[in-house]
């Protein structure tokens, strides 16, 4: 029970599952949160651990929008295992929205709640304990989509931009506390979230490769990093391009598909 602890949301697939495997390979204790209990167990098995091993694994089947549940589980963790060394707010969703459709306003609000509000709720319970200890890393998974607005992404781009700025504020607040705030900004990663994209995805990388680079950035306490680095160069160019040039370029970018309407 002396191994370091990582808490990770959205751990049932994609980037989250890859990060869980990478930390498991290091011998860390895992606190994994996602809605699907069976998928969490599968992720743990694929990482070479026993889901029933209570000394190495805590699996929490919960929706990150259940803020009270997140807070309760955080307090239980602090009482039993102690304060994690790393907390990663990874859970996120991506749907295209078309705001000319009235129903899409609710979809947009849901995206903001999951990608921004729930991310902050994941990190919040551990701020004071990490400050008291004088160490730790609070990590948010942002996106290069937070740099500029893209067609069909009125909600997703906004949610990731909001997360970047909130993490930046937190980083400045905690600058002298010994607690690091790390913003990871993935480019295109081959996950269930991106597999339905109908447009070109430059520098697409596998989740395991992303996870290894992410762990290095977290270890180093990097304030902000785009992975992979060529996407970082591209995002800096997009950030600085004048609107007169950006708008027609972005207009040719394929739209993210809208969320399928719920059956009546």
What does this entry look like structurally?
The protein has 264 residues and is α/β, with parallel strands linked by helices. The protein has a single domain, classed as NAD(P)-binding Rossmann-like Domain (Rossmann fold), CATH 3.40.50. It has helices at 14-25, 37-46, 67-80, 104-123, 127-133, 156-173, 207-220, 229-240, 243-251; strands at residues 5-9, 29-34, 57-61, 86-89, 136-141, 179-186, 224-227. The protein has a 7-stranded parallel β-sheet with strand order 3-2-1-4-5-6-7, with helices on both faces. Strand 5, helix 6 (156-173) and strand 6 form a beta-alpha-beta unit. Helix 1 (14-25) packs across helix 2 (37-46).
CATH superfamily: NAD(P)-binding Rossmann-like Domain
Please give the radius of gyration in angstroms. 18 Å
Could you name the ranges where pLDDT drops below 50 across 5 or more consecutive residues?
Answer: none
Structural class: alpha/beta
Q: Which CATH top level class fits? A: Alpha Beta
Distance between the termini: 50 Å
Count of extended strands: 7
CATH topology type = Rossmann fold
Total helical segments = 9
- The ordered string of helix (H) and strand (E) elements is EHEHEHEHHEHEHEHH
The CATH architecture is: 3-Layer(aba) Sandwich
Please list the strands of the largest sheet in the order they lie side by side: 3-2-1-4-5-6-7
Major sheet characteristics: 7 strands, parallel
The overall pLDDT, averaged over residues, is 90
Number of domains: 1
Tertiary shape: globular
Strand content: 5-15%
Estimate percent helicity.
40-55%
């Amino acid at each position: 029970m002396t191994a370091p602890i990582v808490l990770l949301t959205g751990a049932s697939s994609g980037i989250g599952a890859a990060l869980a495997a990478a930390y498991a390979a290091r011998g860390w204790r895992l606190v994994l949160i996602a809605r699907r209990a069976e998928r969490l167990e599968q992720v743990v098995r694929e990482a070479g651990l026993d889901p029933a091993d209570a000394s190495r694994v805590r699996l929490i089947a919960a929706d990150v929008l259940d803020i009270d549940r997140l807070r309760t589980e955080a307090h239980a963790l602090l009482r039993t295992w102690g304060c994690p060394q790393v907390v990663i707010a990874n859970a996120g969703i991506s749907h295209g929205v078309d705001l000319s459709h009235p129903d899409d306003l609710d979809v947009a609000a849901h995206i903001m709640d999951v990608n921004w509000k729930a991310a902050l709720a994941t990190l919040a319970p551990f701020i004071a304990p990490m400050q008291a200890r004088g160490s730790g890393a609070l990590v948010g998974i942002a996106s290069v989509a937070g740099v500029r607005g893209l067609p069909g992404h009125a909600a997703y781009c906004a949610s990731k931009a909001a997360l970047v700025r909130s993490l930046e504020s937190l980083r400045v607040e905690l600058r002298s506390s010994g607690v690091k705030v790390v913003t990871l900004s993935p480019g295109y990663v081959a996950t269930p979230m991106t597999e339905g994209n109908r447009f070109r995805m430059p520098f697409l990388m596998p989740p395991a490769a992303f996870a290894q680079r992410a762990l290095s950035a977290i270890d180093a306490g990097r304030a902000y990093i785009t992975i992979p680095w060529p996407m970082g160069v591209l995002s800096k160019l997009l950030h600085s391009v004048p609107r007169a040039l950006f708008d027609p370029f972005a207009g040719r970018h394929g739209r993210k598909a809208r969320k399928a309407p719920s059956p009546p």
